[in-house]
């Protein structure tokens, strides 16, 4: 049972029953407030489930199993692990199916972004990457790198940020003085925003002097100057696919080890206009 928060349109609503029971979720600090959990919650509401979240620090097997034990005591119908790396640290939980959340196409999205920039005639694509120890950043970097390798393109050194616009700005300052930078794939949209600012200060205009593609399609991306070409992930669809796999496990029906939802390239002005125009 849960109670919705009061909102601008009125007082607290009556308790909402969840006839299908409760699902457990194990998250890390990096995923407990992110879009994967948001999409999973939305999908669970559609299906009539409550969601109970345990957040763990680090990736130790003891911490993860303690979270699973706590969820088991709550009588959850199944457990979803948001960070797939945690699954490797877990032993089976007796009587409770345990699965990773659906993959949202990090590698495939990066491949599509890089292919798009190469198709515009660029000899190579530079990469503004996320933190080197992050699994999402690594998957996106691998998609970029292996796409360049398949095309026989030169692989420039990765310029790294920490997902923030500030780090994208600093990386952009370095890229702006690097000769031959005509296309940049940024591992997320916020770093691309900082990149835009640094390029503008250096006298470079996007898309006249360089094409830029981001990743995530944050709500603001369509309103960047110029609007940002980016990779969109449907996190609600990913949540639905995750629930479909979990329900199959609950019912004893064969199901894939992990669901996958394809990412979509959304083309906007940052890569649409001809350079040099």
Automatic annotation (TrEMBL):
Transcriptional regulator LacI/GalR-like sensor domain span: 114-271
Database matches in Gene3D superfamilies: 3.40.50.2300
InterPro entries: LacI/GalR-like_sensor, Peripla_BP_I
Cross-referenced Pfam families: Peripla_BP_3 (PF13377)
Entry annotated with the keyword DNA-binding: yes
Sample GO molecular function, one term: transcription cis-regulatory region binding
Keywords: DNA-binding, Transcription, Transcription regulation
Keyword Transcription regulation assigned: yes
Sections of the chain in a coiled coil: none
PANTHER family: LACI-RELATED TRANSCRIPTIONAL REPRESSOR, LACTOSE OPERON REPRESSOR
This protein's name: LacI family transcriptional regulator
UniProt organism field: Amycolatopsis vastitatis
